Amino acid sequence: MWIKNVPIKGRYVTLSPLAMEHVDALREAVQDGEYWRLWYANVPKPEQMEGYVADAISGAEKGNIAYVVINNQNQQIVGTTRYYHVDSDNRRAAIGYTWYANSACRTAINTEAKLLLLENLFVDCNAIAVEFRTHLLNHTSRGAIERLDAKLDGILRSHQIMKDGSLRDTAVYSIIASEWPAVRNNLQHKLTLRV
Fold first, then answer.
1. Residue 161 is part of a domain; what is its CATH number?
2. Which of 11, 22, 85, 111 has its CA 20 to 30 A from that of 78?
């Protein structure tokens, strides 16, 4: 496989390959903030967590690697993230399906998780580009992606049917390999400001 399904450890977080044993901890994490109530987000309800995890694990067979995000300070699972739309032939992947317990938001956790994921792709996997996708109206997610210095590639109109039946316009962003050094420096700087 182009992306190895192994843990990635940083100072603040460890990204550990998602397993069924993580379901209970993720059920607890998702209740902190109840982000599944946001109509434009794809965050699972607590009772949907087992199926969510099982689906994510089956995606690993296609090279889509899902992780639990573990806070290194207290070893608590605070959310999940993954690589998807993995295209090894073109050395390209998307990062997404990211959600956190509210207590982990606005901390070093997401910053370092993105740094680790991007570094793994650009350094270890020699990626050409990394993509991020989100609902056009998910301004929180779009702001977080833009703070990574990802560039807006465009909007896919009426791209997906949402669980409520509405049509999702998807904002597509990317970071290309030549931009990685500046993105890395920016993320590392943001981490020093959080200490």
1. 3.40.630.30
2. 85
Q: For residue 186, give the nearest of 111, 123, 107 by alpha carbon.
A: 111
25 found inside a domain: yes
Phi-psi region of 130 (alpha: psi -120 to 50; beta: other; left: phi over 0): beta
C-alpha closest to that of 7 among 52, 70, 64: 70
8 Å CB contact between 163 and 41: no
Structural domain span for residue 18? 8-194
The string of pLDDT tens digits covering residues 124-149 is: 999 999 999 999 999 999 999 999 99
Does pTM surpass 0.90?
yes
Torsion of CA 50, 52, 58, 59, to 10 degrees: -160
Tokens of 165: 């039946």
CA 164 vs CA 7, 9, 42, 84, 168: distances in Å: 35, 37, 11, 23, 10
For the chain, what is the domain count? 1
